[in-house]
Fold Phospholipase D family protein.
Amino acid sequence: MTHLLRHLALALALVTAGCASLPPPSDRSDTTARVDTADTRLGRSGAPLTSAHPGLSGIHKLPEPHDAFAARVLLAGAAERSIDAQYFIWNGDQVGYLMWQALWKAAERGVRVRLLLDDANTSGNDATIAALDAHPNIEVRLYNPFAQRKSRGLAYLTDFGRLNRRMHNKSFTVDNQMAVVGGRNIANEYFGAGEGIGFADIDVVAVGPVVQDVSREFDLFWNSASAYPAAGFVGPAAPDAAEQLLARFAQTEVDPISRAYLDAVREATLMDDLRNHSLRIEWTTAKVVHDDPAKTLDREARTDVLLLPVLIQSLGRPEKSLDIVSPYFVPGDEGTAALSDLARRGVRVRILTNSLAASDEAVVHAGYMKRRRDLLRAGVELWELKPTATEESLKVKGRFGAAKVAGLHAKTYAVDRRRIFIGSFNFDQRSARLNTEMGMVIESEQFAGDLARTFDDEVRQIAYRVRLTPDGNELQWIEDKSAGQEVRHDSDPETSAAKRMGVGMLAILPIEWLL
């Protein structure tokens, strides 16, 4: 309850907060992706495959966390010319430092590294960022940075209009030849480590023309008016910064969790499979969709800078089915009406989101809970992930230890079992109107069908089915047990009355646009 009251107080303060701004970036040169990379190791490995599939891109899914981690480290290890990485969260934990080490090693080989970090989640990492940025082959830029490094809560209150808009994009591109795009940030919880929340998520690794699209998206953000050289905010690196960073890398390597990750990298076969042409790749058309970074500074509610209209157009109008997986689901008036209209037209609309007990952002649940009745009355199917969902189904348990709570973090949508989006875009107001987002729309009956089969075959074991009581006025949560037995819950399962009351209070406030 105390946590929810803090959210309530912050929400009330934010509604009345003023606005400020930063001066435009200075002492910065525009740079673009390397194009002279066909003769690199990755270029040579991928050339026979792309030549055999002209005009198509190759997509390989990464649903399992250790594979997703290994893919990034292996690609960094194969880099010869460039690494471009763009992330919303990059934590200073085991995963974070192992990935920073991979970038450092590449830079030591002469690889140009460009690292673009949203500044909302860099707290405590300024010294590391400064040390990385001081390397002659590494440049770090902070997106929409905080001028006040220590009192970020106060900064929100004085500069809310700007700081409320974040870069949520996630991509990792090597030599402009292969790229990883999806929902994972760089932190333990996104790769199945530790004892807190373990997130179920999905990335794809791509080869072919779509990689150049990812690079163009990166360049657009890297050279945007919201990307500032990190040194102007984190300060200069200490004289012994490199030695301290190398010591931290060595310390991380001997950590038990880190050793398990490094074992996963050694056992991963991604690069060998690519060279041997045995990597399971779907060759198809794929399109990168993204917001324009001008969205971050927009104050005129422009629609031409938004991802959402492009995403809707790229996925196409559903005729038979629409499957939605979104951890934060806040459809608002327009989204609720659109989904309800589809369901009434006979389109099967199925939604999987976090339950209140599984969500790591209970405040976001306030924007979803008041839409459930309208959606259910229209015929939309709602499923809410259990906090006790099996790690085997969610792919969050590996050699790295088991998370206590299973949380959903994947953002993926499939239309008519033919086209699928995989990326960073949540079906909520923040992704639609405030944060910048990106992802891929992939023409794939296999990938879209896999998502449909998750709803068909697995969702009953990992989620509650939300339905209306016979009189249509109240909600019920149906939990499947073994031997076909069902358990009915008359309130959000595995939550306290105080938590439900707190979220209900937030739902009354006019803060849906923030969620």
Notes: The chain has two domains: 25-282, 286-514. Residues 61 and 473 are 41 Å apart (CA to CA).
